[in-house]
Design goal:
464 residues, alpha+beta, MetI-like fold, five-stranded antiparallel β-sheet, three-stranded mixed β-sheet, elongated, transmembrane, UgpAE/MalFG_permease, membrane, Ig-like_fold
Amino acid sequence: MSTATAGGAAVPGPPPPEGQSSPKGRGAAGGRRGRKTTILGAPRWVAGLFLLPALLLLGALVVYPIGYSLWRSFFDASGDGFVGLDNYQEVFSDGAIRTAVKNNLIWVIVAPSVATALGLIFAVLTERVRWGTAFRLVVFMPMAISMLAAGIIFRLVYEQDPERGVANAITVTVHDTFADRPPFPGAHPRPEAGLDESADGSYTVPSAVSADSPQLVPLVGAKRRDVSGAADAAAARPEPGKVTGTVWFDFTRGGGGRHGVLDPGEKALAGVTVQAVRDGEVVASATTRSDGTYTLPGSAAGAQLRLPGDNFDEPYNGVDWLGPSLVTPAIIASYVWMWAGFAMVLIAAGLASVPRELLEAARVDGASEWQVFRRVTVPLLAPVLAVVMVTLMINVLKIFDLVYIIAPGTTQDDANVLALQLFQSSFGTDVNQGVGSAISVFLLVLVVPVMLFNIRRIRRERRR
């Protein structure tokens, strides 16, 4: 209470007697006494009324399915016979489900770690790049693609045929850059030609060659694209003191040619390695010219003519990305491609809030950039990294779309995960919704610890 002095200034008046309060205060207290209110002053039943639709929806879409799945897991496939814990016993004894559990463990360990690490690297490096925002946009763009579309994209990327699959097109290109491609894969002599085939795929002329008569070697089975642009084959002429001959594609377009005879218009096989072998050792070697002819030195006389198997081996066809051994890592790579942008955006937001003076102080004290990153940046980003890791771990525990779409039928069992096994057990060929419900309960049990960890982390941050 205050009073005004002659000068116009207000001075504090004497405090009210102890135990008394103003009428306004008594009215406010009396109005609130006897009823519970929220922070905003509204009665709690009003807040509950507004929350009721959301609670009903949550109960219908979350609580009821969980309860029904738990109840259904104790019954057989028909849903009429009570089997107790038999379905859970099958979950832990079935080989396909054990494979799914193993693959889920690999997913939980590898996918979030790699995606978070790449997100951290991208977030830190793009701070120093002039076009960092554009780079982040490109990296984040896969998040706009659905899992279904991403699965279709990577199914094509991992195609075995290098002419269709991007991954194998790159692999084959790199391989062929450093290794010679077989000139005529699949080519071979006719059975009546009398050439001996070895275990390594080479063909040997039984009779010894001489310098007087050229040795003709007709072949068939070459692929059309390998001979379509070849020159016409020419008959080799004898050369004094040398062994000559011709290797050609013994096929006349349109028919009418004779087997074992060099007919006009038949194509030469250029680039074929021809060896002269005596007592198992190569004494001379030559390569056929553009017209299919070859010339060996006189030391080859009396030796056997051999065409090594390297001439006819199938070309390198890339990596079997979707084979049993690589299908899970290949699908994880597609997941990282999608979610590394998500991790990068969250980490970049956390990085923007890091005090710059701490980083500058570390640099002034003589710390290198690697030391600043490892000892200052990463510890300060630990809460953000935990958020990203936990979010991705929960996400990969229920991964389904990518595995179902990318993995072909032959290796889908090798790439199996719990969510996919749940679908197959509940709606596949051998329908058993009791086992499917048991898998769903088991998957829920796996998610709960991660969820509890996330809740505890959020509570600790609120206390700060």
